[in-house]
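Severity: low
Component: inverse-folding endpoint
Summary: output formatting inconsistent between runs
Steps to reproduce: submit the following structure tokens with default settings.
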């Protein structure tokens, strides 16, 4: 029996990921947060697994084993529908569930009440110095239950582009489907919606930064009607971000043409290596041209140039000059990564 177009696309995706991991070094795999998947591949082939990848693999197993009882606990305490996005829902689509995550993202139409119910039942807020509580923020402060290593983020809305109206939460709930984890009372967005939410979420953190973010979108979008994805992205006002993400997926996984972002600030994706300082600066200055109309992107460029020229908070001009000189001497040096748990 001849395979369908969706099946062929999924097969091509698996084969492409296998090739990318085969050619990548451990540092690049870790930078793109694909350690569990690389370890799974090596074990499947009967090859030794480097210690760094084995640690990532154990983290993925622990997260998967912990997610279900924690979600059941939340479900027992919270009223109203809950949508699970990202994390374990996407991990279910990975070979061997070989994807790490550090939190559970739950979307609720009664987010404040759900958050309060968790706090009243023994959950405690996770200290995050970078988290700023504002009415506009898309989720409430993360919470944790006892010694469980996963935190829970209760979302009022998906993480979205600041210049685009957020998609109506009602639409996400009306079209939702049962979660792949098969927990009664836990749903997940329809695949078309989920793919777009994942694409925007990755873009908001740092556009075309990690191969795992691109793969998350690809595994959800692979069996879908690409025209429906485009129509929904246009209706939601994110057509430029979706087009850029979709074209990057085609180039990296399906042999499509190499786009301008992948020739400049996204070069680390197909090469599965750490992003360089130069690429990070190019991304900061140029990414708006693949998100906004040209005139608005130029205004964003001017703002980014000003922020790039000015010293960082607490940094003197002398420190700034030394940092710029070091960057100019070593433009190809990897970006210094701050410690961060996998999302």
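Observed output (run 2 of 3):
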């Amino acid at each position: 029996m001849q395979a369908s177009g969706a099946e062929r696309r999924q097969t091509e995706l698996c084969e492409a990921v296998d090739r990318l991991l085969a050619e990548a070094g451990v540092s690049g795999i870790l930078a793109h947060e694909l350690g569990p998947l690389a370890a799974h591949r090596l074990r499947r082939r009967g090859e030794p697994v480097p210690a760094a990848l084995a640690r990532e693999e154990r983290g993925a197993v622990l997260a998967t084993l912990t997610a279900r009882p924690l979600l059941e606990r939340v479900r027992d305490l919270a009223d109203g529908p809950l949508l699970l996005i990202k994390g374990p829902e996407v991990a279910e689509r990975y070979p061997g569930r070989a994807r790490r995550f550090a939190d559970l993202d739950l979307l609720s139409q009664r987010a404040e009440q759900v958050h309060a119910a968790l706090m009243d039942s023994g959950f405690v807020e996770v200290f995050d110095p970078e988290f700023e509580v504002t009415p506009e923020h898309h989720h409430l402060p993360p919470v944790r239950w006892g010694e469980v290593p996963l935190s829970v983020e209760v979302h009022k809305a998906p993480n979205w582009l600041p210049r685009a109206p957020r998609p109506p939460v009602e639409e996400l709930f009306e079209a939702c489907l049962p979660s792949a984890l098969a927990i009664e009372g836990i749903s997940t967005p329809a695949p078309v919606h989920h793919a777009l939410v994942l694409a925007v979420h990755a873009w908001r953190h740092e556009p075309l930064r990690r191969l795992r973010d691109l793969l998350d979108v690809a595994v959800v979008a692979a069996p879908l009607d690409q025209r429906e994805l485009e129509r929904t992205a246009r209706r939601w006002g994110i057509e430029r971000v979706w087009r850029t993400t979709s074209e990057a997926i085609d180039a990296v996984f399906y042999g499509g043409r190499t786009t301008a972002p992948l020739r400049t600030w996204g070069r680390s994706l197909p090469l599965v290596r750490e992003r360089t300082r130069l690429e990070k600066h190019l991304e900061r200055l140029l990414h708006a041209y693949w998100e906004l109309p040209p005139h608005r992107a130029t205004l964003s460029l001017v703002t980014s140039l000003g922020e790039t020229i000015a010293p960082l908070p607490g940094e003197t001009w002398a420190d700034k000059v030394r940092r710029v000189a070091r960057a100019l001497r070593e433009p190809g040096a990897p970006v210094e990564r701050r410690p961060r748990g996998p999302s």
